[in-house]
Amino acid sequence: MKEENIDMNSIESIILIVLIVAWGIYMVDPTHKVSRWVGYRSEGTRTSLVNWKRAQKMFYGISIPFFAVLVLINYFIPLSNLVAAFIIVGWAVAIMIIIEIHLG
């Protein structure tokens, strides 16, 4: 039986697609209410509609371009799975810190 390896470029592409779909769902809702299902959610973002909107704008505004660039970089200069995973985890921590500081 052939063992298949997980291609990090595929995972990055899937994350990018999921982010774009989630952003689309968020944009379809004209009220942009605080959602239980879609978007960046933390205690700080759910305290008010203003915080919610600001957090979503920052989350999608930073995340979609970041993953688009990461997919392109990995396409032209293939990254090892470990490096790609480190970048993704680092991004997740960084985006949380950035958003929470700006909501503070």
Describe what you observe in this structure.
The protein is globular. It is mainly alpha-helical and 104 residues long. It has one domain (8-103). The longest helix is centred in the middle third of the chain and has 28 residues, at 49-76. The chain has 3 helices and no strands. The chain has helices at residues 8-28, 49-76, 81-103. It is 69% helix and 0% strand. The termini are far apart. Keywords: Membrane, Transmembrane, Transmembrane helix. It comes from Lentilactobacillus kisonensis DSM 19906 = JCM 15041.
Task: Supply database-style keywords.
104 residues; transmembrane helix; transmembrane; mainly alpha; DUF3784 domain-containing protein; 0% strand
